[in-house]
Design brief:
Chain lengths: ~100, ~160
């Protein structure tokens, strides 16, 4: 575990850079993390995915897989990969401040 | 910002590219390669699938709908070979396995192939096998990128890992 300062606040991250405590997350932090990950501007579609992931996480205890995202977030699998080129489930989960989704699909 | 959120710096030896060969046409022969390819893309790796020999069934428009579990010659089925050879056993085992996979949110092969193509994974068929079975590109799903010689495949796989299943 380590800490990082994001949007002026100290947050706890695990060794892969995922939030230890998703409630520490704010939208300003998402913007910072996205920039560090190569996404200069978060579009409306990015935010749709980020908000959907947080909603799923707080409801179900784990983030959605890419298949679930593609079927229920309103953003297609093709678009998900265009929005989050480093792997949608993982990259979007990190930016959304939730743990890495556990599914294999 | 703190460097710790840059995953490349945390683990500099991550695999960046995989090319997965699927050579078998049974359910248990096809799924592992598909799951690995899909998972590679989900992790942000470059991925290619290369279908050869009976593995071609997984991208054959008609045959991909009927991929079955092999119930004979597989000790891990925990079923006597003679029983496994009875008519309908393979279909029954396939139905049971499909039901379990559906519960685990693993898609059926046709849907899975479509999804994998959407992830940006390359989908290729082996030319020698296509010729041997007398197939043409019309027999395969529209997502097929190309029919390649083994030499082309090695060029495509250059700089990454090759996994044979």
């Amino acid at each position: 575990m380590s800490t990082a300062t994001m949007a002026g606040v100290e947050v706890r991250l695990n060794e892969e850079g995922f939030f230890e405590d998703p409630t520490q997350w704010t939208e300003d932090m998402a913007v910072e993390m996205a920039k560090a990950d190569g996404i200069d501007t978060l579009t409306d579609q990015h935010w749709t995915v980020i908000k959907f992931m947080r909603k799923e996480f707080f409801e179900k205890g784990t983030g959605p897989t890419v298949r679930v995202l593609g079927k229920t977030s309103g953003v297609s699998v093709k678009d998900l990969y265009a929005l989050f080129p480093k792997g949608p489930a993982k990259m979007a989960a990190r930016i959304a401040g939730i743990p890495k989704p556990k599914g294999c699909i | 910002m703190n460097d710790t959120i840059n995953p490349e710096k945390i683990n500099p030896e991550k695999i960046k590219k995989v090319s997965i060969i699927i050579s078998k046409g049974s359910l248990e022969g096809v799924y592992p390669g598909l799951i690995m390819a899909n998972g590679a893309r989900a992790e942000g790796m470059e991925a290619n699938l290369f279908f050869t020999f009976f593995g071609l069934d997984a991208i054959h428009r008609k045959r991909m709908q009927r991929i079955k579990v092999a119930t004979v010659g597989n000790p891990a089925m925990h079923m006597p070979t003679l029983l496994g050879g009875l008519p309908g056993m393979s279909a029954l085992a396939t139905r049971m396995m499909n039901k379990t996979m559906d519960k685990l949110d693993i898609p059926p092969i046709p849907e899975f192939m479509e999804m994998i193509a959407d992830t940006g994974c390359g989908i290729y068929a082996c030319k020698a096998s296509v010729d041997m079975f007398g197939f043409t590109s019309d027999d395969f799903i529209e997502q097929l990128d190309d029919i390649l010689t083994v030499g082309d495949f090695y060029d495509l796989a250059a700089g990454g890992q090759i996994i044979f299943t």
